[in-house]
Fold this sequence. Notes:
The chain is α+β, with helices and mostly antiparallel strands. The chain is 55% helix and 15% strand. It contains 18 helices and 14 strands. The strands form 4 sheets. It has a 5-stranded antiparallel sheet, with helices on both faces. It has a 5-stranded mixed sheet with strand order 9-11-12-14-13, with helices on one face. Strand 6 (311-321) and strand 7 (329-335) form a beta hairpin. Helix 5 (106-116) runs antiparallel to helix 7 (144-170). The chain starts with 6 loop residues before the first helix and ends in a 5-residue tail after the last strand.
Amino acid sequence: MIQVLTVYSGFFIITSFISFFVAFLAFQRKALTGAKELAWLMVAAGTGAFWIIFETAATTMTGKIFWSKLEYLGGLATPVLYLIFVLRFTGKDKFLSLRNILLLFLIPAFTWGLTLTNEKHNLIWSGFSSISGKTNLMEYYHGMWFWIGYIAYSYVMLSVSVVYLVSFIRNQANTFRAQALVVLAGGSFPWIINVIYLTGWNLVPGLDLTPVSITLSGLLAAGAILNFHFLDLVPVARETLVEILPDGIIALDSQNRVQDINKSAMFYLGTMNKRIIGHPVGSSGASRPELLSAATNNNCFERIEVQLNDETRTFSITKQDIRNQQGSRLVIIHDITDQEKAAKELRQARDRAEESESLKSAFLANMSHEIRTPMNGILGFAELLKMSDITGEEHQLYLDNIQKAGERMLSIINDIIDISKIESGQMQASFSNANINMQIESIASLLTPEAEAKGINLVYKNSLPMSESIIKTDPDKTYAIITKLASNAIKFTSSGLVEFGYEKKGHFLEFFVKDTGIGIPAEHKNFIFERFRQGSDSLTRNYDGAGLGLSISKAFVEMLGGNIWFESEVGKGSEFYFSLPYESYS
């Protein structure tokens, strides 16, 4: 199976490592009450997280389902092991007979059997979404037995466990009681993530953090046991649960004194005062007082933007009262900058897509008009040719008009084909030798009649001798670029001058097309080269043509390794420039 490790795989690698590490520590003290049960609990949680590493890294639906089935082995066993651990830890050993333990595992065993054979009945998973190209995750649509045999049964086990565990922790009167309560409050947040996943409110569709929540709850229980017997393990539990979290966590009492704070919170607040615990939070020396104020006010939720390391970061701040501690609360500072940025980019992408659809619709409407106009001319003059009383002069005039209309239609069709090839990536450059001087002269000869008909003085300039004007480029595309720009200049100039040519500047030839025409309004300058824009712009609405010339020219220039730009002033004309690499013929 092909595996591609993602950031989510890395997250479960850490989770699995933490679980197995706590299991190892517990096994080292297996002679003590609850240690062996805690070790098996962490092994089960770590096993579930371990298989999810491969599920998040799998690139096929078959692979993901396979690893998910293995993950269920740990997931189904964990709630039962959690209850067994709590009963042992809280002195309820009388319930832990072999018969009762086997009965507790009966439903999970049956559920896992249904999981392995899900393809035959769909009781665990009723369907699956496609794999996301962005996250490499897919969503599992759950069947009836998943809710009964997995979710309902698991939460019954966990609810009973929490009742016993919380009751036990509340009755402890030792120096670590406050820390235990903080860990308890912190440990409740991962379970909220599980509820979010099941209700479809997940920020990352398809990402199941249930093993993480079990692992953190196990760490909470480890902290309670080790607070009671194994004082050396309490710091490990705290460091694992609180310190590695990217969210800032602050525990405050009723007088706003800091009971606990992790490194992330200290970093966000801008304080390095390691002796802050036990002192008022206002004396922490925080360099970001606006964030400190948002974290300590009485609002349950805050959203604030803060300047952090020369960039603006957005934080959400959540406050939760700590049970049985009047006025005390747990503050969670969560950096949501990336989520906000992603949401903004998504909105921008949606707006661009909507704008693109609008522009394409306008473009198609314009094409309908542009094609219909010459077609009507062809049909109309063809009908006149059928008349028997037309003179030879009229006959020739009608043929000339038909030819012009046909050439205009062919030009429009060619532009549409070119822009379609560019859009689909099928347009390629074909490099060979091109005589730029001859191309300039040919284009001047081609466009002179049109310019003279409008009373425009058409001037061209070749700055290199003939022997030095042969370069390696795509002759057809170079010819097309100059022709389109010069033709545009004539089209939008009613009188005066149109000049085009080139100059050698370093290792490039810089081409220019200058006119004394109508110019380009300032509001059009930002999108003059954009595809499908000109079909709806007022700039081209009163003139013939598809309005694709500049879009095609820009694409051709970039294919040939050059750049294109312009200068323009309304009423005074425009100057278009583009550069091409100068590789002389040898």
